[in-house]
Design brief:
Blueprint: E1 3-8, H1 16-30, E2 33-37, H2 42-45, E3 51-53, H3 85-97, E4 102-107, H4 109-115, E5 124-128, E6 146-150, E7 157-161, H5 181-202, E8 205-210, H6 217-221, E9 229-231, H7 239-253, E10 256-261, H8 290-302, H9 304-309, H10 316-319, E11 320-324, H11 336-354, E12 360-367, E13 371-378, E14 399-400, E15 405-406, H12 408-418, H13 424-433, H14 438-441, H15 447-452
Parallel strand pairs: 1-2, 1-4, 4-5, 5-12, 8-10, 8-11, 9-10
Antiparallel strand pairs: 2-3, 6-7, 12-13, 14-15
């Protein structure tokens, strides 16, 4: 194999450039050219296929820095429809004209779905990335536990899980953790510590929303920020128990910090943060969010009198406030853990193509003997009986529903990731790059400016 392509799809994460860098380093060793396809699958729909040479003369281009977040080759949420056969044939024809013999896709479950139609025409592999840590399996046969039935009025299908009959063993997890997760937890936990001081100072109840629509891994990881309550999408919110716990904490310490995943659900399984059918004065639809929905519930259930009696405020609305960590979870410099293992997974993806593998996923595994190590798993192994890929969810053993906190199993899981997640250069970079006088003197210089000068098109290719 002489030339391979690489694209990055879906949402950005802090460690994508580290994955690309790992792939380029390994390709240089094997004397393989790497072509970066601009804006993910979007480039494949463009007849000119914008692309860059990432390792001309088998040297990485200087713009490729594994300590920089995001992706220098851009990303989009365009995906390939497996039913559009003519478009797929056109895409494969363009890749052949570029002399690309294999393709690495860096992404999550949507990217895995997008790459599989291409795997019938050329070798394609996935290097995983997602801050939600939801690309993987708690155990090998997990996809077989999903069942489905038709939705109401022909609106697709409704999926549900049957009770697991498998004993959980962390050594049997497929893809123990994804690059980007550690950095997202670092940002979220730090944000919780900062909000805490405001809640303490003003006798407030703070609800902080973190990402992970169907998977509570980030919410679980925020335990490092010491919130009082953690709510995850996998466990329905028991409002009575939650109010009881809040009052216990509030009467003891005069403040409460609650973390909720953006996909938390009520006892009927309805997401609290779904879009509301109301508009602002301009007529724009108001998007609620889980934290705001939960705040409304608590304002109603706790009531104004409770806070007046304690002389902490006139109304519940005054005392209870919300914050979102937001997109800062997805951006910025990746931690040492993410950089290192993202690089290894990028390297593994190159090896998989060179070895003749197809429709495989590079995975990060863990066991007591080896610690963390890279391996691979068949892409179809993530699909249920109908070909659907489900977001990995927290195993029930990771979370204590009554205490509304992580369990001992959850603690063990996180410790393996975070004990050495931060390197000395991570903290030193703050001193060197944030409060440097150059930031005051010069405007921001985007890598996109430099990369634009390197972009070539299919009709320019020699």
């Amino acid at each position: 194999m002489k030339r391979i392509g690489i694209l990055t799809a879906g949402g950005d994460t802090p460690a994508i450039n580290a994955t690309i860098h790992g792939a380029v380093v390994r390709a240089n060793e094997l004397k393989v050219e790497i072509i970066g396809l601009i804006k993910g699958f979007n480039s494949l729909f463009n007849s000119r296929v914008p692309h860059v040479r990432l390792n001309p003369l088998f040297q990485a281009i200087p713009e490729l820095d594994p300590t920089v977040g995001g992706t220098i080759i851009g990303a989009s949420r365009d995906y390939i429809n497996p039913e559009e056969h003519e478009k797929i044939k056109d895409i494969c024809g363009r890749l052949r004209r570029l002399k690309i013999e294999g393709l690495i896709c860096v992404g999550g479950d949507g990217t895995l779905n997008g790459m599989q139609p291409l795997s019938e025409f050329l070798p394609v592999v996935l290097a995983p990335k997602t801050i939600d840590n939801d690309l993987g399996l708690n155990y090998r046969i997990e996809p077989e536990e999903w069942q489905r039935k038709p939705g109401e009025k022909g609106s697709g299908h409704i999926y549900h899980r049957i009770p697991a009959e498998t004993q959980f063993d962390p050594e049997q997890m497929i893809n123990y953790v994804t690059p980007g997760f550690a950095t997202a937890v670092f940002v979220s936990a730090g944000g919780i510590q900062r909000v805490r001081t405001t809640a303490e100072s003003h006798r407030r109840i703070a609800i902080i929303e973190v990402m992970g629509r169907h998977s509570g891994f980030i919410a679980l990881g925020t335990a490092y920020g010491q919130p009082d309550v953690i709510l995850v999408p996998e466990s329905a919110v028991d409002v009575d128990l939650l109010v009881e716990r809040i009052k216990q904490f509030y009467e003891l310490q005069k403040n409460v910090v609650i973390v909720c995943g953006e996909g938390i659900v009520d006892k009927q399984g309805n997401e609290l943060g779904v879009e509301k059918a109301s508009t602002d004065p301009s007529g724009n639809i108001i998007l609620s969010g889980a934290a705001e929905a939960l705040r409304r519930v608590l304002i109603e259930r706790i009531g104004d009198k409770y806070f007046r009696d304690l002389r902490r405020g006139e109304t519940a609305r005054e005392v209870i406030f919300t914050r979102k960590v937001g997109h800062s979870q997805r951006g910025g410099r990746p931690l040492q853990f993410d950089r290192f293992y993202a690089g290894l997974l990028g390297s593994k993806a190159v090896d998989l193509l060179v070895e003749g593998r197809n429709n495989d996923v590079a995975t990060l595994q863990w066991n007591h003997q080896k610690g963390f190590y890279v391996d691979h798993f068949e892409g179809n192994g993530f699909r249920d009986l109908w070909g659907h890929i489900h977001a990995r969810r927290l195993h029930p053993s990771f979370y204590d529903q009554h205490q509304m906190k992580l369990s001992h199993t959850g603690i063990d899981y996180l410790i393996r990731i975070f004990n050495d997640a931060i390197g000395a250069d991570d903290t030193e970079s703050i001193r060197k790059t944030l409060f440097t006088s150059g930031n005051l003197l010069q405007p921001y210089h985007s890598l996109n400016t430099d990369m634009s000068k390197r972009i070539r098109f299919l009709d320019q290719e020699l």
